[in-house]
Amino acid sequence: MKYMKLGTKPDTFYTEEAVRSVVSDVPADLIIHANNTKYQLHKCGLLQRLCSDADDGDEEPVPVALHDIPGGEEALELCAKFCYGISISISAANLVPAMLAARFLRMTEAVAKGNLVAKLEAFFDSCVLQGWKDSVAALQAAWRVSGWGESRIVQPCIDSIVEKILMPPAKVTWSYTYTRPGYTRRPHQSVPKDWWTEDVSELDVEVFRSVISTVRASRQLPPTLVGEALHVYACKHLVDPLRAVANGQAQSAAAEETLARQRRVLESIVTMIPAEPGSVTGRFLLRLLRVANYVSASSSTRAQLIRQAGSQLHEARAADLLIPLPSDPQAYDVGAAEAVLEHFLAQFQRPAAPDERRRMSAAMDKVARIFDEYLRTIALDRDFPVAKFVDLVECLPDIARSDHDGLYYAIDIYLKEHPELGKADKKRLCRLIDCRKLSPDVRAQAISNDRMPLRTIVQLLFVEQERTMGAASHGAAVAPDRASVDAISRLAARTNEDEPASSADQKSDVHRPRRDHTRVADGVTAAMTRSLSESTKTPPLAGRKERTTQERSSRMRNKE
């Protein structure tokens, strides 16, 4: 940051009983009240405008009230020190308040040659606007002091910043802030394309929007670079609701102002997202959706985020779908996750070229794994209704899941966390699992899982038998999965426990579906046992030849 030094005298201002005075042999004849500060000064030529209406023959000090002076009392004191020739330093940090105060006091060339306004304007044009960080600091200071009111400072700063952003990275010679994780600046290292994003993230959102809009209008930067700038700005100014909930930062009346500011920042960022696909990541969009729920953003903002996040859902992770409810940040908004998934699936209803279809098919596989992992987290909620969980599972069509391993784990977690479920609800859940889409290891685990309903285990045993018989038909002696065989005895025990005890029930099969399952289980038990026996017994060749010879001899004797 560049500095300009004015004046040569030492600082002789002092404070006594809340009054700022300057050491002088001449009594003070000018009293200035600026907010809570009182100044005792002198009627020097540079400050003549303040006492132009006063009587020169009046011996009493002239009181002047400057409670609304632009730049505040610090800028007023800076101007006063300049009048006394006291040494002052001007930089981008205090340039704007000093310039506003000097213009208000009419410290121009018309009053005295070499006055403060001319010196400050020369420093602004020749030094501040030529530097990168100086331009950013001056712009932010001008905005905080007067907003768009001081266009003589704001607009030149914006133009200077945009000009430097559009410059090729190879021509960047000034210092900039870049603190990405894992990035270490080395000598002669090339400048990253997004070198400017962290510094402009210091700006107020309205000024930031003006900079980004001007950059986008130039069409010289790719949309992904603009998206990265939005990501950096959001990370700096928006709180992550999941972290806020973990830290116990609940919404309260005291935090309402903060939430309103966050809402304003969020909605501004969403309107700045480039329309080009891939300009921002799916994970970033879902993060913005979480914030939108947390700060109660407008319905149009949420709808836009849901639509855009749905088109890029395959880029996300399961944790990104955990969107807190506005009314209860401890709970998750399942409806928002369903809406995102619905917009993702809507893409498959449109005609597409073969290459695009293959890409979409790969995206569907990723989304299926993401959603099943998301279901595992939802299953941990002990208050989540079984009907709603079934509906959530069915949001993803069967064709989308190439395997059901993830779905099995999610349902098993739900059964474990909800031991009070009745048999009907357990059956309803487990009917969602396609046993043929389970991998051998998961199928073996499911067979030995006591939480699985009897009907599901029977289906799993059938699938295991089909696998064994299919392998045997191709000449391979494959034994059934050992876990399947070990489960047979437990299956028989469970069917015995489910047997009705009354003689009336034994005479009729009405309303006793377990009887059918028992017969099926007995058949599967016998078939699995025979398969195991046939696959594990391999009689010696010599023994087989000996029995064949004996059989032939026996048949010959019978013929005689």
UniProtKB/TrEMBL annotation:
Domain of life where this protein originates: Eukaryota
Biased composition (Polar residues): 528-538
InterPro entries documented for this protein: NPH3/RPT2-like, NPH3_dom, SKP1/BTB/POZ_sf
Disordered: annotated span: 493-560
Residues in NPH3 domain copies: 194-467
Keywords on record: Ubl conjugation pathway
Pathway annotation from the record: Protein modification; protein ubiquitination
Keyword DNA-binding among record annotations: no
Bias kind Basic and acidic residues: ranges: 543-560
SUPFAM superfamilies according to UniProt: POZ domain (SSF54695)
Annotated Pfam families: NPH3
Keyword tRNA-binding attached: no
Family assignment from sequence similarity: Belongs to the NPH3 family.
Protein name: NPH3 domain-containing protein
Organism from which the protein derives: Panicum virgatum (Blackwell switchgrass)
